[in-house]
Amino acid sequence: MKKIIFFILFINFCYSQEKELTINEIDSIVKTSKNIIQSSGIIKKNKKTIGGFNLTEISFNNKLIYSSYGENTTDKKINFNHFYEFYFFNENPIFVRINIEKTNIKDNSKEVIKAALNETESTSFKEIKNPFLINLRMKLNRIIFDFINNIPE
User: Which of 74, 99, 109, 123 could serve as 83's disulfide partner, Cβ 3.0–4.6 Å?
Assistant: First the structure.
């Protein structure tokens, strides 16, 4: 009798373990999901509007699996467009895509940086080198922190 109970508990335990979704599986869920939270806002500096942001969060089985964050800021000479995609498993980032465009307003010239960070790189404390001299590590950590702390229980 003890062996039967142990066997049943073992089977239940095995099936209750979550399978980590692949990036392709998460992308497929994102395309068809109805569990979407979206928000947007204005970015101000010294009481002056300098840009805007948008945020999308998608959950699956009541857990955050995907988020995207876009930001656009402009000053007199330069326009920055930031776009970040975050893939999560158990509320931990497993993959991050970064796309940042810097546009010179006068001559409309564009510079673009793209990066993809795996799980280890996305949670590292090491700064992410980039030609725009943006402190990307601090920015990513702030965005991830906001995602994780705003997950509904």
Answer: 99
